[in-house]
Design a protein that fits this description.
By secondary structure, the protein is of the alpha+beta class. A 6-stranded antiparallel sheet has the order 11-10-9-14-13-12, sandwiched between helices. The chain has a 5-stranded antiparallel sheet with strand order 5-4-8-7-6, with helices on both faces. The chain has a 5-stranded antiparallel sheet with strand order 16-15-19-18-17. InterPro entries: GAF, GAF-like_dom_sf, HATPase_C_sf, HATPase_dom, His_kinase_dom, HisK_dim/P_dom, HisK_dim/P_sf, PAS.
């Protein structure tokens, strides 16, 4: 117990000792024990100083006093009283006093008062505490007229009384014994109030009084109509009782404050949780003001949001006047502007003493100002000075932290909605096919497609949304090379948004109508961030690519025609002109035959050029035709001398008959030119097509890839465009043309769809 006695003053000549000093309990003038089960020495006053509540102590009458552990002031008072009570004038030594039986009336009253204090400790409210204390003064101290007075700033009010005067007041604290006790904090014992210079009784029948301060704001008084009704023992017992009452009141109020604080924090937490449900800033700030009014119990609460360099009122208490807040500039906005710019909470006890304060209403006195992030300022105002303390500031800061977080969430969601609305509007009105999608784990999931996508790809939105688009639109690739090219990138462009990357390039994608060519633009939702969301925009360039290919072929044909005109036509023209000049000069008519053959060669060349000019054009509508019949028609229109045509029976192909006649005629002419006048030509069917072969010298394997080139020939009279015309007609039908060796060693041309 040594530490508990540090700093306790028990008066001159009194020594505090511990059992380690060699003294036993029987040698002590007073014993303090902490264990309720400890033994008690007869004849020695014993104080139980413990955390165990009085109702849990077994046989509490064994102890002379009870003090809750930690209440050093009460412990000091109890020990002082017991020591004073033990100073019996008839005993010369401590041992004699200890051996003397304790059966005098004062000692009995003290014992009964101690026992009665258990009722005080069990009180749950201050009102009940005072009521029980008044009962103890009647039953134990035997006082007839007692009261507890509490001061509330205006004066005293009767808090408890044994004569039904509770609530009486206010009573002035400037005069009288009541006021003097309150101002000095001292106890007074007055034998006759008529002889006391400051006593001012309400009733002239009052003659003697006890007046004891009960804490900082209360006074206990006992009044009697008899002179000298109270003595020093009465005063000591009254002080002891009041000390119990004051200490118990402090505990009750402290526990009530803690309980109220806990409940307030819990309510504040629930209110802050409700803020998270707000969907707009206006709703958030309105709820904030409601919470501060209801839970923090501020007179007027106000939220101001910073806009365009001003603090603009956004929400204010429902009880506030209509003009209770106003728009103020940041550069001259008083306390609110200071708090917002410094991001520091401010408590102003009285705005009338603050040089920067600019209250909207003169009735505003105290102000609590708390910043709300970079959004604005919260202010609470009170009609009395010094209405706010640090706890108010801490709770408000806690709430405003929630408000700031929720406001930022609402603003972010608003920005996201605006961005989504703009993106949706653009997405829907873009003229090209567009897809909004997410990428996770290498899989692409469609969020939305626009109408242009449905039109271009032929896939309905209901079938596409929520599915993996890549498996639907990416065409299968041919078998890759055994060894891929170094640095080859096999990543599907649509997946690049997973890394926040963009892409623009040409791709082939599968539609309901087949594979088509597109320019693909991949746009991540957040460039540079790995959010895995974005857009793909497909611009169909299939027709353009077809036109480009056709234009490229036309350019090639124009270049070929230019070469023919500049070279192949010039040679026979020169021959004809030279022979005509010689015939004119010499009169040799044989020159005319040579010139005529040259002109015939030019005519054939021009016919071939006209046919070649049709290369790449689509054939007319095809139909099922009998190949042997068409072959015989072509044979009849070709100069074949003594050559022989052999056809197979029942071979049918899909073709434009006129173009097929032209293809076969060129092959027959080529066979006669290279195989001789008596060449044998055979036409028959193969799997998926037909063939034409002869028994001539054939075509060397190294030249088979070149024979279809325009101008390529080995004959003396050929011009080299017949096989080029053959290939162009085959391509127009969608056939492939292959040169190989025939069964008799000659040339064999196979055509398959």
């Amino acid at each position: 117990m040594d530490d508990d006695f540090d700093g306790i003053d028990l008066g001159d000549g009194v020594t505090v000792a511990s059992p380690s000093d060699g003294k036993g309990p029987s040698d002590a003038a007073c014993v303090v024990v902490a264990d309720p089960d400890a033994g008690v020495c007869d004849g020695v006053p014993t104080v139980l100083y413990t955390d165990v509540p009085p109702e849990a102590v077994d046989r509490p009458d064994r102890f002379d006093a009870y003090v809750r552990r930690g209440d050093r002031a009460a412990l000091e008072s109890q020990v002082r009283w017991l020591l004073a009570s033990g100073d019996d004038a008839g005993a010369d030594t401590d041992a004699e006093r200890a051996a003397e039986p304790r059966n005098d009336p004062e000692w009995e009253r003290l014992k009964r008062l101690y026992e009665g204090t258990t009722e005080l400790i069990a009180a749950e409210t201050v009102e009940k505490l005072y009521e029980r204390a008044i009962g103890l003064t009647e039953d134990i101290l035997e006082f007839n007229n007692t009261s507890f007075f509490r001061h509330d700033g205006e004066g005293f009010y009767v808090a408890a009384n044994n004569d039904g005067l509770v609530g009486t007041g206010p009573i002035s604290d400037e005069t009288g014994l009541l006021g003097r006790t309150y101002r000095t904090g001292r106890s007074f014992l007055v034998d006759d109030v008529r002889d006391h210079p400051e006593a001012d009784p309400n009733d002239p029948a009052y003659r003697s009084a006890l007046s004891v301060p009960a804490g900082d704001d209360a006074v206990f008084q006992a009044i009697s109509n008899e002179v000298g009704a109270y003595d020093e023992t009465d005063l000591t017992l009254a002080e002891l009782l009041v000390s119990y009452v004051s200490e118990t009141r402090s505990r009750i109020e402290s526990e009530a404050a803690v309980r109220q604080s806990r409940e307030q924090i819990e309510r504040l937490h629930r209110g802050a949780t409700e803020l998270a449900a707000a969907t707009s800033l206006d709703e958030l700030f309105e709820r904030t003001v409601e919470i501060t009014d209801d839970i923090l119990e501020f007179d007027i609460s106000y939220v101001g949001v910073v806009e365009d360099g001003h603090i603009v009122p956004t929400a204010i208490s429902s009880d506030a006047p209509a003009d209770g807040a106003e728009r103020v500039p940041l550069d001259d906005g008083g306390i609110a502007a200071e708090v917002y710019l410094s991001r520091t909470t401010n408590i102003t006890d009285d705005v009338r003493d603050h040089p920067e304060a600019r209250p909207v209403k003169r009735m505003y006195r105290a102000v609590l100002s708390v910043p709300i992030g970079d959004i604005g300022v919260f202010q609470a105002t009170a009609f009395t000075p010094a209405a706010f303390d640090e706890r108010d500031a801490e709770l408000t800061e806690l709430l405003m932290a929630h408000v700031a977080v929720t406001a930022e969430r609402i603003r972010a969601e608003s920005r996201l909605r605006d961005e989504r609305d703009r993106s949706t509007a653009l997405f829907e009105h873009v003229s090209d096919a567009a897809v909004a999608y997410d990428v996770e784990g290498g899989a692409l999931t469609v969020r939305d497609v626009n109408r242009a996508f449905q039109s271009a790809f032929g896939y309905d939105a209901d079938d596409v949304v929520g599915s993996d688009l890549l498996g639907r639109i990416v065409p299968p690739e041919p078998d890759p090379d055994p060894v891929p090219e170094p640095g080859a990138d096999e990543t599907i462009p649509e997946l690049l948004v997973a890394a926040g990357e963009s892409y623009r390039g040409e791709v082939r994608r599968r539609t309901e109508g087949g594979v088509r060519e597109f320019i693909l633009n991949v746009v991540p939702l957040s460039p540079g961030e790995e959010r895995g969301a974005g857009y793909a925009i497909y611009t169909d360039i299939t027709e353009r690519k077809t036109r480009e290919s056709e234009l490229e072929r036309q350019n090639e044909r124009l270049e070929e025609f230019a070469n023919i005109v500049s070279h192949d036509l010039r040679n026979p023209l020169s021959v004809a002109r030279g022979n005509l000049d010689l015939a004119r000069e010499t009169g040799d008519v044989s020159r005319f035959d040579t010139a005529e053959r040259a002109l015939e060669q030019m005519e054939q060349l021009i016919d071939d050029l006209l046919s070649l000019a049709r290369r790449g054009q689509l054939v007319d509508e095809t139909e099922r035709v009998d190949l042997p019949a068409v072959a015989k028609q072509a044979w009849a229109t070709t100069e074949t001398a003594d050559a022989e045509l052999v056809t197979c029976q029942s071979v049918v192909v899909d073709a434009d008959e006129d173009r097929l006649v032209e293809l076969l005629a060129n092959l027959f002419r080529n066979a006669v030119e290279h195989g001789g006048r008596d060449v044998r030509v055979e036409v028959g069917g193969v799997d998926g097509g037909f063939y034409v072969e002869d028994d001539g010298p054939g075509i060397e394997p190294e030249r088979r890839d070149e024979v279809f080139e325009p101008g390529e020939t080995t004959g003396e009279d050929g011009i080299g465009y017949g096989l080029a015309i053959v290939e162009s007609i085959a391509e127009a039908h969608g056939w492939t043309a292959v040169v190989t060796s025939g069964t008799a060693g000659g040339a064999r041309f196979e055509f398959r769809a």
